[in-house]
Amino acid sequence: MQEHAGTSLVATPALVIDESILDANIARTAEFVASAGLALRPHVKTHKSIEIARRQLAAGAVGITVATLSEAELFAEAGFDDIFIAYPLWIDESKTAILEHVLRLSSVILGVDSVDGVRQIARLGRARSGRLSLLVEVDSGHHRSGVQPQDAGTLAAAAQDAGLEVAGVFTFPGHSYSLETRESAARDEQRSLSIAAASLADRGIQPRIVSGGSTPSLEFVRSSILTEVRPGVYVFGDAQQWELGTTSPESIALTVLATVVSRSPGRIILDSGSKVLGADRGAYSSGFGRLLDYPDARITALSEHHATVVGPDLPLGSRVRVVPNHVCAAINLIDEYLVASADDRDRFGSWPIDARGRNR
Amino acid sequence: MQEHAGTSLVATPALVIDESILDANIARTAEFVASAGLALRPHVKTHKSIEIARRQLAAGAVGITVATLSEAELFAEAGFDDIFIAYPLWIDESKTAILEHVLRLSSVILGVDSVDGVRQIARLGRARSGRLSLLVEVDSGHHRSGVQPQDAGTLAAAAQDAGLEVAGVFTFPGHSYSLETRESAARDEQRSLSIAAASLADRGIQPRIVSGGSTPSLEFVRSSILTEVRPGVYVFGDAQQWELGTTSPESIALTVLATVVSRSPGRIILDSGSKVLGADRGAYSSGFGRLLDYPDARITALSEHHATVVGPDLPLGSRVRVVPNHVCAAINLIDEYLVASADDRDRFGSWPIDARGRNR
């Protein structure tokens, strides 16, 4: 960990991790998932950090999940050897060489949701034998990518016919991101994966991996069907999770340190704009993020370098801790974390955000 | 310009500039502003590129505008010597050394909107004499930072009393970003700057710079009060400007090259999610961006690596050109532009996004 001086010399806006809370979040979720009889394969797009992914493996994770081929490349080169790319990649000539490179370094599971996508993967050379397997993506209600659950077996059979190994099925119950649907989305996930797994079995393919799990639906997960879960945001928490009720302010491990740069009657302006917080805003969000130490404050507007805050009447130059709405977006906007040490919170180090920008 | 192979070897999502359109946009706005009798000081947060800023200067810009001290640092180190930081910076001990460094390299104009902010600047060493001046920020209706127009003179006088040079006043009429208010925001800007300039004159301070101008309000700008304008987005255009009617699809110089990775009845999924396009969405926006070659298509949902598109029924693996809603946000998410050469559109080069991530 590279050392920095105290916070007063830290130019704002800056991302700050509380290492004690981070470690507690990693341990708590690992214990919960283990006690549910499930494997944990955390999504590392939330932090894009080799250091944090290593801590997740040390706490018992079976491997990691990534969203893109370039994320897989970075983590494979860092020594991670069991990587699931939970995305229906289209492997054309722009991506073939990188995927073959990753396969020389790591076991890789690829998501698929179309026969054409499977054919593109089957064009890869024989070198990948034994290191590559597939999970069929199922739409469990989020209506993004994925096949209908009852069609999973047909696609799995086509993949086997093309000489590829099918490890099972997966889904992302993204419709869990609302105040009313966290539990019902978990039920949809369970039901869809159950139908999909049966559909594979009907074709004589026994799924060894049945993978689900978003952070909001995680507490409702059951192991009777699923074998593993892939939550991401739990390591940090964010304002979305706070407002969905899946975390509490005391468990939020990452904040943006910001400075009050302007004041007018009824509002203050912080230097943490959308180029640091990200512009994500759910239908249920109270604003564009939250102030950790002023829970009644509201961020009513956001431009690239200004956050307009209504509520606390703070002097110019004050520093506050802002919780981004969607931490996965915020961490992709900056090159390093400042880390308040678990041993001494006045001592700051830094970790690189290794996979920042690796989004293809 | 570093050379790349043809587009089929470009991994998507990727940012692509059409150099011919970029150069035409730079020339057209430079001519319009000159013919209006105004100076042009373009905001470079839109592109964060040394190459593009140089082209803007070559076309007649008098200097550049930046949003942050770290952007100023990068451009000053690249040889730019007339830089306006259009932001009410809070100069504390975390920023003093960087500002002094920038002042050794470039003339710097700082925005101010408070007496306390002025006092922080006045603490700087004498070394900055002659290279530093101030513009008082005025709120012309956007209700973000800035003093009320009639209060500008009081702040300017306080700055002079603190030994600082006041060059004039500025505003950002950001309320021009709506379908109904482009022209009225330009009138607000004119009126507010007129009051503010008179308020300085009342204190015996003759403003030599009266600075305004957003891209949506630019066409309504008049030189009777203003001396310069600071548009940014005009170099590229984006879906916001398209939908506001300030540009047409033929004049959009930057698109995100994306691949169709999934298909379901009624929708296709592109690999250009919010981690490439940004999540900005105005109240007037039709969706989360536009498809340049399919104007009737709508991007109805965006997650980090998925754009859900309703309209064109394109085969898997198809490549399309996506216009981000807010180009300033999109270009901050990636490290380089691919550039389709003006001489030969099949030849691709690349330019670094030099100030990507410099947001403090």
Can you describe this structure?
- The structure is a homodimer of 360-residue chains.
- In chain A, helix 3 (69-77) packs parallel to helix 4 (96-105).
- Chain A is globular.
- Helix content of chain A is 27%, strand content 23%.
- Chain A folds into two domains: 2-16 and 240-352, Lyase, Ornithine Decarboxylase, Chain A, domain 1 (Beta Barrel), CATH 2.40.37.20; 21-235, Alanine racemase (TIM Barrel, Alpha-Beta Barrel), CATH 3.20.20.
- Chain A is an alpha/beta fold.
- In chain A, strand 5 (82-85), helix 4 (96-105) and strand 6 form a beta-alpha-beta unit.
- Chain A is built from ten helices and 18 strands.
- In chain A, the strands form two sheets. In chain A, strands 1, 2, 11, 12, 13, 14, 15, 16, 17 and 18 form a ten-stranded mixed beta sheet that branches. An eight-stranded parallel beta sheet of chain A has the order 3-10-9-8-7-6-5-4.
Which oligomerization state do the chains in this entry correspond to?
A: homodimer
Assign the CATH class of the largest domain in chain A: Alpha Beta
End-to-end separation of chain A in angstroms reads 28 Å
Provide the number of structural domains of chain A: 2
How can the largest sheet of chain A be summarized?
Answer: 10 strands, mixed
CATH superfamily of the largest domain in chain A: Alanine racemase
Order of helices and strands of chain A: EEHEHEHEHEHEHEHEEHEEHEEEEHEE
Classify the secondary structure makeup of chain A into a structural class. Answer: alpha/beta
Level-2 CATH architecture of the largest domain in chain A: Alpha-Beta Barrel
CATH level 3 topology of the largest domain in chain A: TIM Barrel
**How many H/I helices of chain A?**
10
The whole-number mean of residue pLDDT values of chain A reads 94
Helix share bin of chain A: 25-40%
- Report the largest inter-chain contact: A-B, 68 and 68 residues
Q: Segments of chain A where pLDDT lies below 50 for 5+ residues?
A: 1-5
Shape, per Cα inertia axes of chain A: globular
What gyration radius of chain A follows from the Cα positions, in whole Å? 21 Å
Strand content of chain A: 15-25%
Number of strands of chain A: 18
